[in-house]
Each structure stands twice: as structure tokens, then as C-alpha cells.
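Example record used in the benchmark description.
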Amino acid sequence: MESNLDILNDMRSYLNGNSRDLLRFLTEIHENGYQPLSREDLATIRSLNVYASSFDVRSLKTIVANNRDLLLRQDIIEHLNSDARYLLKGMGAIQINNDN
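Model output (C-alpha cells):
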């Protein structure tokens, strides 16, 4: 991905305005050290959503215990459904600053 961003930045003049804005956004994210969610992380988040929707607290606790680093990330909150947000916040597993 890094090499493709370099090539795109070199050829920026060939991109239209929306593409340039998107490239600028991706370049800033990459330079700030943002790590995108992996497939494994997305699968874990999906499991959290499913277990929260079915109110399976035992399974939620197991996932929370095994994935503490993932739950510390603020960018996962937008991937959680309302049931998962409510239960995980109540368990103290996540902190929601503005009650998304």
C-alpha cells in the first residue's frame, strides 16, 4: 500500500478533485500511524454484535477478556451496534465520550 500511495502522490495531477481529496486523507492517515482493522478484528467485532443482540453475556465476557487491546481502540465504536455499545459500556470494557 505504501508504494501505491507514493505512486499516486507522484501522479496527483492526473487525479480529479474528489480523488485528490481522498488521496490526501489516506496519506494523512498513513503518516499518522493509523492501523486499519484487520479481518480478524472485524470478525471479532461482528461476534460482539451478534452476542450482544442475543444478550449472550457469557460469550461477551470471553471475547472482552481475549481482545482487550482491540476494545481500547476508539475507532471500533462506530462498528458496534447499539446493543453492543450499551452492554460493553455497562461492563466497563469501552468508553464512549459522546454517546455515539
